[in-house]
Amino acid sequence: MNISNSEQLHKQAQQHIVGGVNSPSRAYKGVGGGTPIYMERGQGAYFWDVDGNKYIDFLAAYGPIITGHAHPHITEAITKAAHNGVLYGTPTALENKFAKMLKDAIPSLEKVRFVNSGTEAVMTTIRVARAYTKRNKIIKFAGCYHGHSDPVLVQAGSGPATLGTPDSAGVPQAIAQDVITVPFNDIDAYKEAISQWGDEVAAVLVEPIVGNFGIVEPKPGFLEQVNELTHGAGALVIYDEVITAFRFTYGSAQQILNIEPDMTAMGKIIGGGLPIGAYGGRKDIMEQVAPLGPAYQAGTMAGNPASMSAGIACLEVLNQEGVYQRMDRLGAKLEQGILAYAREYGLPVTINRLIGALTVYFSEREVENYQDAENTDGEMFAKFFKLILQEGINLAPSKYEAWFLTTEHSEADIDQTLDAVKKAFAAMSQ
Ligand code: PLP
């Protein structure tokens, strides 16, 4: 495959943009380096790169592009918004309409507020929880990514429930000291954290279905116990649904799991591909936020007409009959096909899948938490990633990420993908 134009652009990028990329995961570091492919055009389930190569896309921009690239309904909405002026700095009727759509789809959202990214949404839920409870500590689960604000760039020390150490230079130790990290799906570790620090904890931050060390579902009863223990300690439960909102159903993971948090952070899909974040939850908690309450949060771009229009249009597409059933059917076909070829070529593969999102781990063992995901074979994944890219299949360049199906993938796309998987596995088994 000729990627000379990508190589040229990547040389230029490194002169102008730090590391050549505007988000580190795009740099192929997770797959042993190489030149990231520079895409030029996306349409439906496909990408074309700057050298004219065509790809079936399962990256979906790390989740948001659930209706495929340049979906006509969303494109029309964005075009209309552009003609009417993209930013007003005043309230608009679009914000009311979209807020009501989110509330109707996710009943725990008594009040919402729009921001510009998932990072902002999560960061603000933490501030609001601290304002409401007048406590500082946060509990989170190892390996879950919640954006790049200071309190969530903290990792666990050693031990099942530990106070954190900064995960990034520039995060003060004083902030890390207020963050407790426990393994996901380990209720004993959670109990230990609550019994040790419960009366200082403002909130627990949870990806109810994890998307950041692959797709990992909670064990039966785990989230129920987390809710009970957290509320028992007088703290709040925040669900980070930046990946999961509208990914598996028209609504959130909360409905699938039949459980409600006190607050929810969202992003990605709800922007229809434009920058967005939103947070919401119980009215009495949300009323902590300015201008009603003492917790400050603001945004020049927040609730802008272009993002609102794209988000509304995206949800309209997702609210059509059979959308998620179709992604589920194609997801199952992909999962079963990959597992069958793994068996045929004697490769250790485990797949976690829910509806149209799946992670292919090179491991014989099940993946239930971050440690399990870390133990899967990264070198094998890197080989697979590069082989399948050569066959025109675009995945996220990391063993921890999911493949995302869209409303636009077809049976034929899945068949072509499975042919590519077969070729890659055959090469890997040599
Ligand atoms: N929360 C989760 C669960 C995420 O996966 C991400 C991004 O991948 C974020 C928060 C941060 O969102 P953003 O990249 O829009 O700031």
TrEMBL record:
One of its GO terms (biological process) is protoporphyrinogen IX biosynthetic process. Its EC number is 5.4.3.8. It is an enzyme of class 5 (isomerase). GO terms for cellular component: cytoplasm. Keywords: Cytoplasm, Isomerase, Porphyrin biosynthesis, Pyridoxal phosphate. It catalyses: (S)-4-amino-5-oxopentanoate = 5-aminolevulinate. The keyword Oxidoreductase does not apply. The modification N6-(pyridoxal phosphate)lysine is found at K268. Gene3D superfamilies: Aspartate Aminotransferase, domain 1, Type I PLP-dependent aspartate aminotransferase-like (Major domain). It holds the Pfam family Aminotran_3. This is Glutamate-1-semialdehyde 2,1-aminomutase. It comes from Sediminibacillus albus.
